[in-house]
């Protein structure tokens, strides 16, 4: 059981969230995980969007990033830290940075969420998000990173609705797609499993998608149902609505045989919609 997705109910107390993340990462390691993914906003979910500015960190250091590096080393575990709020110079906004730590605690990759959730939730009873008010969009540069469990492509939450990002990741050789999330309950019920399975099937990739669950200090609920999906679209492991850990193995030879025997990726004809620089 080498891959883990960690589901959390994060609150507006960084220390408490880091302690909860540490306990769940320890639990995952005890069950055999070598590679664990934390959800979006795992270190902080405030009462108001702008509350995250107060706990945002400079790139590379701070209580959140230092604790992640220490945990990776201590547990001998690769950790993908859903999103960490990183300060943007000269702006009252942060980047939602997905940070990858190797098992020596070295940060080996960073991807900043590109697609921001500026949405009035349909039939959401007034539930409304303006993520771009507090978050700056990341550079239009897909990020892949080689790890002991395979080549990993990074994304965050709302990105999952933009398949062209994943096409670009697969063009760069991704075998595992990461989708840390804090999905709304309404859109989660309608689309969460569907979107994760679609990204897995169309790219013949594993998908690891840890989510937030429960009710947060803002009063909002999140959908939970963290999942690990295999490249044929089967959900191999899934959480419910409580915090916890879901685990699965990657069968690399199954994936390679699938890609060979069902060569849809080799049949691609069209370019992605991203600029040619990507
Ligand atoms: O702020 C919160 O309380 C929780 N949400 C988040 O942190 C983020 C940014 S607002 N959520 C999403 O991107 C949800 C996407 C989504 O739900 C969809 O694509 O339908």
Automatic annotation (TrEMBL):
Cross-referenced InterPro entries: C-N_Hydrolase, C-N_Hydrolase_sf, Nit1/2_C-N_Hydrolase, UPF0012_CS
Domain (CN hydrolase) ranges: 1-252
Signal sequence, renumbered to the chain: none
GO MF terms held by the record: hydrolase activity, acting on carbon-nitrogen (but not peptide) bonds, in linear amides
Superkingdom of source: Bacteria
Pfam families: CN_hydrolase
The keyword Cytoplasm appears for this protein: no
Keywords: Hydrolase
Record-linked PROSITE patterns: CN_HYDROLASE (PS50263), UPF0012 (PS01227)
Keyword RNA-binding: no
PANTHER family found in the cross-reference section: DEAMINATED GLUTATHIONE AMIDASE (PTHR23088:SF27), NITRILASE-RELATED (PTHR23088)
Protein family (similarity comment): Belongs to the carbon-nitrogen hydrolase superfamily. NIT1/NIT2 family.
Listed name of the protein: Carbon-nitrogen hydrolase family protein
């Amino acid at each position: 059981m080498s891959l883990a997705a960690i589901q959390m109910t994060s609150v507006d107390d960084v220390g408490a969230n880091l302690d909860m993340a540490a306990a769940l990462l320890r639990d995952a390691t005890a069950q055999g995980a070598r590679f664990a993914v934390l959800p979006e906003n795992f270190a902080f979910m405030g009462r108001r969007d702008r509350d995250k500015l107060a706990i945002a960190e400079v790139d590379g250091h701070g209580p959140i990033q230092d604790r992640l590096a220490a945990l990776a080393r201590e547990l001998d575990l690769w950790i993908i830290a859903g999103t960490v709020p990183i300060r943007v110079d000269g702006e009252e906004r942060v980047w939602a940075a997905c940070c990858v730590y190797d098992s020596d605690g070295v940060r080996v990759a960073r991807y900043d969420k590109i697609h921001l959730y500026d949405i009035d939730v349909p039939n959401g009873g007034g539930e409304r998000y303006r993520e771009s008010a507090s978050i700056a969009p990341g550079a239009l540069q897909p990020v892949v990173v080689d790890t002991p469990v395979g080549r990993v492509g990074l994304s965050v939450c709302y990105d999952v609705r933009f398949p062209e990002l994943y096409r670009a990741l697969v063009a760069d050789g991704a075998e595992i797609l990461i989708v840390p999330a804090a999905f709304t309950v309404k859109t989660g019920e309608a689309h969460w499993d569907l979107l994760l399975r679609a990204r897995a099937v169309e790219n013949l990739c594993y998908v690891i998608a840890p989510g937030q669950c429960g009710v947060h200090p803002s009063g909002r609920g999140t959908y939970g149902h963290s999942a690990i999906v295999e490249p044929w679209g089967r959900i191999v492991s899934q959480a419910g609505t409580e915090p916890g850990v879901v685990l699965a193995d990657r069968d690399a030879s199954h994936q390679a045989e699938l890609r060979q025997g069902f060569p849809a990726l080799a049949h691609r004809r069209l370019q992605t919609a991203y600029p040619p620089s990507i």
